[in-house]
Specification:
Shape: globular
Distance between the termini: 52 Å
Number of strands: 7
Strand order of the largest sheet: 4-3-5-7-6
Radius of gyration: 25 Å
Strand content: 5-15%
Number of helices: 24
Largest sheet: 5 strands, mixed
Helix content: 55-70%
Number of domains: 2
Structural class: mainly alpha
Oligomer: single chain
Length: about 575
């Protein structure tokens, strides 16, 4: 090991600390999926089972595997409270520790394959990827899953290279980490499958059978639990009519949600087998762009740079599509690197990476591909560096115009990626790290910061805080942010029905019955407007506008006319983490 190489890992970890220092205050971001993970953890900590406490009836959850909620539950049990104001800062410290371990594992994994210099580059690309940094702000499974899969390949590298200093037995460690990956995300099934296939390709039937048994036990445990929930009377007779509708993506499994042409527009109908095949082919067409994003930055940042270039140098102006084309082309050397890795016998690595990409392409959520590929960033970046290392080796040390040009081109390309990442990090922290507030159980308000917490979110949270002060226990909210609303108000909260017919939608919310209807102006999901505005417009006498700050913020409506009693009316839950 050279003297310079000794500083690679400390330098990477110091970089991670610098990225985390501005973000260690307050709880993690509990918007989006973060809220449901936290609520599930609270249910486990309180001994209530694996339940979504925000839902009327506190229904059993079947979408997300339980390992991350269990980590949250452990924090709550140790601290003796479910209050995010108390538990949250400790979850942030844990998230920081996981990020440090993640980057260390990525470097250790990469060093075995491409050596210290290229491993440093893989570590830098992974650590500074803004989408990875953003997701690490949330209490979600993305980074923990990436950590566990990277650790798995560190152990696999010990086995492959016969490291005598490595802990043994390798197989038990690999199995434990593979099962943990599946317990964090269902996508971990790709790692289990690759693990089995590797031993099959090595013609080791005994090992193949053992690995298959371990994988089968893990998958059967989770899927058996799901089958038990689906067969239960509670699932078949939900607390309200559409609680287990296939479009209620937090309340049902992935398979049910994927049956739609568009899960966010169920009125378009179910997808046929032929339609599913067409969707998969279309998704595969989008994969090269997403792979390019995974080893550099999201296309939006590159498009911004192209736009600035065109403004500053009109004579050499480029269309916005040039950014997308460049990112798609970046997938070619990544794919070539995977081919070379396969030729060199790194089958486990290639099988997992390719299998994961195929699994992602089969889902209907193309807009989420850039997120789904984030745990694959170190693997895709390593494939890229493996190709570059091979090219540099073939160019040799002799000086010639072609060799010098090739080396300069490689250095320029890698430098461009890293410079864009540095710029994106700086811009995000300087201009998109916004002030937010949370309230503890004693009613004290505390300041902290969230990334990409824009004005619409601030106004949305102001409205939720107002509602917390003016509502009564047990009243039900319908909103596109039900778990976040529950955490801020303590009130049961549900999604509005995704019904194009406003009369049907009205009957459904009457049967809950919903007390408050929030029509938001958030950009991430428009169902809070698309399906609720027609319902209010059709029967304005049924809803009274009680909160309206300005045109940018949400509107809160309170039921003005009580619905007729219904036999299937919900029993509102009373759980709260405030």
């Amino acid at each position: 090991m050279t003297l310079g190489a000794r500083w690679h890992l400390p330098a990477l970890l110091a970089l991670v600390v610098l990225i985390w220092l501005p973000r260690l205050q307050g709880p993690p971001d509990l918007r989006y999926d973060g809220g449901v993970y936290y609520i599930l953890g609270t249910a486990l900590a309180e001994g209530r089972g694996y339940r979504i406490l925000s839902e009327p009836g506190a229904i059993e959850a079947i979408q997300y595997p339980p390992l991350l909620p269990a980590i949250g539950a452990l924090h709550e049990r140790l601290l003796g409270t479910a209050d995010p104001a108390v538990v949250g800062p400790w979850l942030r410290v844990t998230a920081c520790a996981m990020y440090l371990a993640y980057i260390a594992a990525v470097y250790a994994m990469s060093r075995r394959i491409v050596g210290p210099t290229y491993a440093l580059l893989v570590g830098l690309i992974t650590a500074m990827h803004m989408q990875t940094v953003f997701l690490s702000d949330f209490f979600t499974a993305d980074v923990p899953f990436a950590l566990v899969t990277s650790l798995f390949f560190v152990v696999a590298a010990w086995r492959r290279h016969g490291d005598e200093a490595a802990p043994k037995p390798h197989g038990a460690l690999e199995g434990l980490l593979a099962v943990a990956a599946y317990a964090l995300r269902t996508a971990g099934v790709a790692l289990l499958a690759a693990w089995i296939m590797e031993s099959a390709l090595d013609r080791r039937p005994g090992r193949t059978a053992l690995r298959a048994a371990v994988a089968l036990a893990a998958v059967a445990s989770w899927q058996g639990y799901i089958a038990r929930v689906k067969a239960s009377p509670e699932y078949r007779q939900p607390a309200y009519a559409y609680q287990r509708a296939d479009y209620q993506f937090y309340n049902v499994g992935y398979v049910e949600n994927m049956r739609y042409v568009d899960p966010f527009r169920p009125e378009l109908g179910r997808v046929s087998p032929a339609g599913m095949a067409r969707r998969a082919l279309e998704n595969f067409r989008l994969i090269p762009l997403s792979v390019g994003e995974a080893v550099s930055e999201h296309k939006g940042w590159w498009r911004g740079q192209v736009g600035k270039w065109s403004q500053k140098v009109p004579a050499l102006a480029m269309p916005e599509s040039a950014a997308d084309t460049g990112l798609a082309l970046l997938s070619i050397p990544v794919a070539a690197g995977l081919v070379l890795l396969a030729i060199q016998g790194y089958w486990l690595f290639v099988l997992y990476t390719v299998g994961s990409v195929v699994l992602i392409a089969l889902t209907p959520w193309a807009v989420q591909f850039s997120r789904y590929l984030i745990p694959l960033t170190p693997f895709l970046a390593l494939a890229l560096m493996y190709l570059l290392a091979e090219v540099m080796r073939r160019l040799g040390a002799r000086r010639s115009p072609w060799r010098i040009a090739g080396r300069l081109a490689i250095a320029a390309g890698v430098s461009l990626i890293l410079l864009q990442q540095v710029y994106t990090l700086y811009t995000s922290f300087a201009h998109h790290r916004e002030r937010a507030f949370y309230t503890d159980a004693a009613g004290q308000r505390h300041k902290y910061h969230l990334l990409f917490y824009d004005r619409t979110w601030r106004l949305h949270d102001d409205a939720l805080d107002w509602l917390a002060r003016h509502s009564r226990p047990g009243e039900v909210i319908a909103t596109s942010t039900p778990h976040w609303a529950y955490l801020r108000t303590g009130l049961p909260a549900i999604m509005p029905p995704y019904e194009a017919d406003p009369a049907v939608a009205q009957r459904m919310v009457d049967a809950v019955p919903v007390t408050y209807l929030i029509v938001d102006n958030l950009s991430f999901l428009d169902v809070g407007r698309r399906y609720t505005r027609p319902m209010i417009a059709r029967a304005p006498d049924r809803w009274s506008l009680i909160y309206f700050a300005n045109d940018t913020g949400p509107r809160i409506y309170r039921r003005a006319v009580l619905p007729a009693p219904a036999a299937a009316a919900a029993t509102p839950g009373t759980g709260s983490v405030r």
